[in-house]
Design goal:
about 130 residues; mainly beta; six-stranded parallel β-sheet; about 50% strand
């Protein structure tokens, strides 16, 4: 996936978890997922949008993520993480580009990665 803007992500959504849905389990796809409901599980997807009413309790691995709701878990995004106003993130994040809007809440540690790191694509720790 090439670098995507927020608009590109919105247009590329293939999987939608609706506002009244509650999902128990993991999601793995090479496409873009939008979550407006609740997910208790991990996500591994090319792109992720968390709507303002969306909540995720679990680990996330993606290229790009746009967060408008609540996440309780660690996030690894090889390209970028954008935390919108009123969004809440509780967990550690690892990414190449981080944007936190005024009014957002982030509690955790952040680590910047780069494409030049040997393990940047798989989230593994350097030894």
């Amino acid at each position: 996936m090439t670098k995507k803007s927020s608009k590109d992500l919105l247009e590329a959504v293939e999987t939608l978890i609706g506002q009244n849905a509650v999902i128990e389990g993991d999601i793995k796809t090479d496409k873009v997922v939008r979550i407006d409901g609740k997910l208790n599980g991990n996500i591994d997807a090319a792109g992720i949008l968390i709507g303002s009413d969306g909540t995720v309790s679990g680990s996330i691995k993606t290229e790009v993520i746009l967060i408008g709701g609540l996440i309780k878990g660690n996030i690894f995004a090889s390209e970028s993480i954008e935390i919108l106003p009123k969004a809440k993130v509780f967990g550690d994040i690892h990414t190449n580009l981080l944007t936190i809007a005024e009014g957002a809440l982030f509690e955790g540690k952040s680590s910047m990665i780069s494409d030049k790191e040997p393990n940047a694509n798989n989230g593994a720790q350097k030894k």
